[in-house]
Amino acid sequence: MDLLQDIVIRPLAKNEPVPYELLLLADPSKEMIDGYLPGSAIYVAQSEDRIIGEYVLYPLGGKAAEVKNIAVEAPLQGQGIGKLLLMHAVSTARAKGYRSVTIGTANSSVAQIYLYQQQGFQITDVKEDYYLLNYAEPIYENGERCKDQLVLTKQL
Ligand code: ACO
Ligand code: ACO
């Protein structure tokens, strides 16, 4: 079976539970997640009857949207599903009439920064100490502490 061929990306239905275990892979704070979910649209990647990935599209006001959260189930990472989700997020934002999409990630998230730039996002801002100021617990990635947030933007 070709995993990527089999994946359907669709909005999460109102009566479906939020797949927190996936959202928490991208953002370890449930409090932060619950802060941006109201008003956001959640899209999920489904393979057969299983939800294996997600992204959250948040309106920033005006014609700008932000991908607040994007994740793929850990054992399925590195097989192209994240790229598929990000391409879907961009085309969804475009279809909804947004003129730009931003995505924020930590200074330590080397693979994510690579993926976002590969998909046409450019670094537009650095929020110094973002992870120190907004998260109670220290976050480490690749042995490095998450400190600053890089903001990347794609014009649509
Ligand atoms: N180092 C370098 N490049 C990498 C790595 C790595 N460790 N992992 C993947 N890549 C590259 C791939 O080679 C691919 O590039 P290619 O097309 O040139 O081969 C590209 O990145 C996309 O890889 P995918 O396989 O599509 O990525 P994946 O399915 O793993 O999804 C994601 C990426 C969503 C970041 C996933 O790994 C994940 O869920 N990680 C944990 C949660 C997370 O960090 N989410 C993002 C937080 S920021 C936010 O949510 C706004
Ligand atoms: N991906 C991820 N990590 C890497 C990579 C890589 N491709 N290459 C090295 N590292 C890590 C190493 O694992 C090491 O980390 P560790 O201590 O946790 O194991 C760390 O980076 C340092 O590695 P070194 O072996 O000391 O690096 P190197 O001797 O290769 O020197 C340098 C780095 C100067 C960038 C060298 O590769 C180089 O000359 N590259 C070409 C020229 C260049 O790009 N120079 C920098 C341009 S910017 C400027 O000049 C201001």
TrEMBL record:
Keyword Transferase set for record: yes
Residue span, N-acetyltransferase domain: 7-140
Alphabetically ordered keywords of this record: Transferase
CDD domains: NAT_SF
InterPro entries: Acyl_CoA_acyltransferase, GNAT_dom, NAT_camello-type
Molecular function via GO: N-acetyltransferase activity
Designated name of the protein: N-acetyltransferase
Organism: Filimonas effusa
Source taxonomy: Bacteria, Pseudomonadati, Bacteroidota, Chitinophagia, Chitinophagales
